[in-house]
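Q: Got a minute? One more chain.
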Amino acid sequence: MIPFFKLLAGTGTRRPLKGKLGMAVHGCAALIAIAVIYTTTIVYIDLYTMTVIFLSAMLAVLFLVINAGPKGRTDRPSLLDWLLVTASIAVGIYFFIESDRIAERITLLFPLETADLIASSVLLFLTIEATRRTVGMGLTSVVLLFLVYNLFGHSLPGPLGFREVSYNHFMDIMMFTSDGLFGVPLRVAATYAFLFVMFGTFLSKAGGAEFFYNLSSAIAGRRTGGPAKIAVISSGLYGTMSGSPTSDVVTTGSVTIPIMQRLGYNKALSGSVEVAASTGGSLLPPVMGSAAFIMAEYTGIDYRDIAIAGIIPALLYYLCVYSQVHLRSMKLGLGGLAKGETPSFKGTLKNGGLFIVPLVALSTALVMGYSPTYVAAISTFMVLVVAAFRKSTRMGPRAVWDALAVTTLRMVSVVAACAAAGLVIGGISMTGLGSKFSDLVFLLAGNSAFLALVISAILAIILGMGMPTPSAFILATVLVSPTLLSLGFSVLQTNMFILYFAVLSAMTPPVAVAAFAASAIADAKPTEIAIGAVKLAITAFIVPFAFVYGEGLLLVGSWLNIAMSCLTAVVGVLLLSIGIEGYWRKPLKTFPRVGFGVAGLMFIVPSWWTIIVAIVIFGICFVTTPHLRHSDHKIPA
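A: Always. Here it is, folded:
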C-alpha cells in the first residue's frame, strides 16, 4: 500500500540538465528574471498580459527542469516534456497576440471564441500538471475537487448547491479575468515574491548566508546549547529571506544538524530544533516570506504595517524556541562549541558586517512607505554594492547571471502553487462557497468565538499539509476570513491569525514537509522530528489567539496597552517554556511544572484577573520548590 505521505506529497524530481541544453535553460531562466525586473520597476505593462507571459515562460522552464515523477527521465526531457514545453510557449504567444482584444471584451457578455476555449483549456491542463509535478497530489487534488464542484456542484441538494455554471462561463471567469488563475497569488509571484527571492539569492551567493551563520556562532556558539542556538538564530535570519521552511531546513540544516549531533544532541532533537527555527523564518520581519506579500495584496493593508505588526509575535516565537533549547541543553548537560570552533564577534563583523546594510536598507525603505517591489529591487542592488567592497564577496557578471537564473529556478514551484491557488479562489468566488463555509463554522461553533477560531486554525493547518505556505494561506483566508471578520475581528488580526497557522502547517504532523526534509539530514523519523518541533514552538500556536483578543501584540492601540501586552507575553513565554521542559535550575516535580505552564498561558492571553491568578500560581509554585529559593546556582545565558 502506498504510504499516506507519498500519496499526498509525491512529486517529480529536479532534473540536473547539463551540456548545451543546460546552458540554454540556465540562460532562459536568467532572461526571465531580467524581464521581471524590467516589467516591475522600469516599464509599465498591462498586469494581465504580464502575468500571462510570466506564467507561460515559467511553465516552459518547469517542464524542462522537473520530470513527470519518480519514474520520469532524469538525464534529459522526454518527448512528453517537450510537448508540454511547446504547448506552454504556444499558449503564451496566443494570449499575448490576443491581449488587446481580451482587455477590451466584456466578461460573460462577449462570447469566447473557439480558439479562446482551446487555448484556455490547454493552459488549465498545463497548470494542473505543473502543480502535480511540483507540489504533489495534495494541492492538485484540492484543485481538481473544486473544478468538479464548479462544473457539477449545481446538482447537489441543499445549501451546497448553486446555479449551474457552463464550461464557457467557467473558463471566461477563470482564464480571462483577474479573479481566477491570474488572480492575486500569481500576480504576487510575478512581482513582490519573485524580487524578494532574488534578494535572498543574491545575498546568499555573495556570502550573506555564511555571514549570518558566523554571526550566530560568534553570539551563541560557546554558550550552553551553543550549536542549537546557532541553528535558531541563523535559520531565523535566513528563513525570513527564503520564505520557505523546507528550503531553509535543507540550506542551513545541512550545517547545523551534523554539528548538533556531534556535540551530543540526539537525531530527532537536532532535526526538531532546525525545523522549529526554520519554520519561524516565514513569520519574521522584514520579509516574512511570500505569504505576507499575498496578504498585503489581498487585504489592501500596507506591507509595512504587516511587517511592523509581525515583529512582537515573531520575537515571542523565537524566545520560546531559544529558551526551550537553553533549558533542554542544561537538562541534558550539553555545552557549547570549543573556543577555536567559533569565530570572533569582532572578526565576523569586520569580514561581513556590510551585509547588515542591505537588511537595514530594506527595513528603512519599508518604513518610509516604498512599495515592496522597489524595496526588493533596492535591497538587491545594495547587496551588489556592499559585496563589491571585498574581493572575496564581489559578484562579477557570471555570478550575477547565475544568481538571476537560480532565482527563476527557485520560483518555479512557487509559481505553480500560486497558479493552483488562483484556480481554487476563482472557484470559491464563483460558487459562493466562502459564505456557505461560514455558515458551517457557525453551525459547529455556535455562539463561541473561541471555537470558531479553533476550527479556523485547524482548517488552515489541514489545508497547509503538503502545500507551500502561500497556497495554504490564500486558501485558508478565502474560506476562513469571512467568518472571523463577521465575529468582529479586524482585517489585520484575522489575516495574521490565518498566516500563523498556514506557516505552522509546515511542521505540524502528520504531513510536516519541513520535518520530512530534516529527516533525511538528521537520519531520524519525520514524525518524531515534527512532534519535537511543535513542542519547541508551542508559543506559536497560542500567540495568535492572544493577538486576536487584544491587538497590543500587533503594536496596535495605546502605548500602555502595547507595553503591558508585550511584558506579560514575555513572562508567559518564559514560564510556559519552563513548564514544557520541566526544568529550572534542576528538574521540576509535576505540581510546579504544571503550575508554571498554566501561569504562562494566563500571562500570554491576559486580562487583569488572569494576570492576578497567574501571579498567585507562580508564587505558590516558586515558594513550594526549594531549589528555586535556596540555590547559588546561576542560570547561564
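A: The radius of gyration is 25 Å.
Q: Perfect, thanks.
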